[in-house]
Amino acid sequence: MKDVYILGIESSCDETSFSIVKNGNVEIATVISSQIDIHKDYGGVVPEIASRAHVKNVTFVLAECLEKAHMTMDEIDAVAVSYGPGLVGSLLVGLETAKTLCWLFNKPLIPVNHIKGHIYANNLVKRMTFPLLCLVISGGHTELIYMDKDYSFKKLGKTLDDAVGECFDKVGKVMNINYPAGPEIDRLAHFGNSSKYHFTAPLNDDSYNFSFSGLKSSVINLVHKEKEINKEDLLASFQETVIESLSRKTIKAMNEYNVKNFLLAGGVSANRGIREKFKSICEAKGIDYTFPDIKYCTDNAAMIAAAGFFAYKEGIKADFTLNANPGLEIE
Ligand code: KG4
Ligand code: ZN
What we know:
Bound molecules: 5'-O-[(R)-(carboxyoxy)(hydroxy)phosphoryl]adenosine, zinc ion
CATH topology of the largest domain: Nucleotidyltransferase, domain 5
Shape: globular
Helix content: 40-55%
Oligomer: single chain
CATH class of the largest domain: Alpha Beta
Strand content: 15-25%
């Protein structure tokens, strides 16, 4: 088969990113412009500021990506764009850029669900094999996804309230840790004693769903109540409870679906404690596993281009009526 070059575009939240990926697994060039420093002072992403920053950055990031790849638009086979879920104003910037490029250069437009992109970040590390189970843990999502072949997704369960990343960020806020708090909690938890504070593992039932708002409230209440808190121990205990909850449901799904491969996806999959736990679970069970490259755990266009290749192979295309879908879900 002739090599296929996909230009990926990602602008669903606070990263403006373009990437060119060959055949869904060979990264040619990726540029990511992060707005973290702009939003840090507000303790979270401010949607209006995010959209404006995307508008300001988008042409420069595209130009830099093509330059880095030593390629022109004529050499691109299709444009894949993240069209949801995410912030509507942010998504629209990437989407309109994609449509304009497709119209100007007569390329197919491939719609990509941002979460499917997170999953395909793993294909840039190692070719995904099936059947597989993927635990998606990000700032906005916590889902268990089963795949029996490429680009076929079945959602087994999801969070009923807060996403894991959101829970990390809110616990961080009460502990005076800058947004996004996940990386710093991860670092501090490493030095703490995880059995010092006890929290109940949330939603201890037979479903594949998760719940994190109760755990978040327990941690926040404890911080308000106790005069002296050992920060490292508290964060280690919190993180351990999160890991316990995620792994219990995941192990159950691994057994029921008899999967051969396990993946982590999303921003929280950068977490050291979570990686160590799932590495040892998979090794004990003889399941092959892949975790995304740390730099591609959070939002980037390489993962969108990788997923876009498999959507392209499936013949998935959109016309210029494609709209942003902030609440887009994996069916
Ligand atoms: O996937 P992502 O970039 O954005 C969404 O699509 O939601 O994930 C961002 C989330 C934030 O909540 C951040 O705190 C969390 O990922 N995060 C982490 C770590 N690195 C990023 N959480 C725990 N441990 C980490 N090392
Ligand atoms: Zn994301």
